[in-house]
Write a structure and sequence with these properties.
The protein is α+β, with helices and mostly antiparallel strands. The protein contains 2 helices and 4 strands, in the order H-E-E-E-E-H.
Length: 98
Amino acid sequence: MAALKYLILLGVILIVAWWTFGRRRPGGSDDNADGADRGDAAGGPPSADKSAAAPQDMLACAHCNVHLPRSEALFDADERAFCSDAHRLAGPHSGSQP
């Protein structure tokens, strides 16, 4: 009877280990839907994702000097970059930064 107890315990440990570590194998289902951290089928390093964004220029907001990517910036008529519509409407900051 004692051997059966240890056999059941070993089975439970193996099931938990399989469920925990088996989910992280390449090609297996994991919590990361885009699979960006998975390697190739041979177990190598992660391959370059074609949907990854190319590097962008960073611009400083003319009002608060916060840096943001060009694609997220809002521009006024003079092509000055702003981080939000409120700062665009307020215009560039005049005076020294604190």
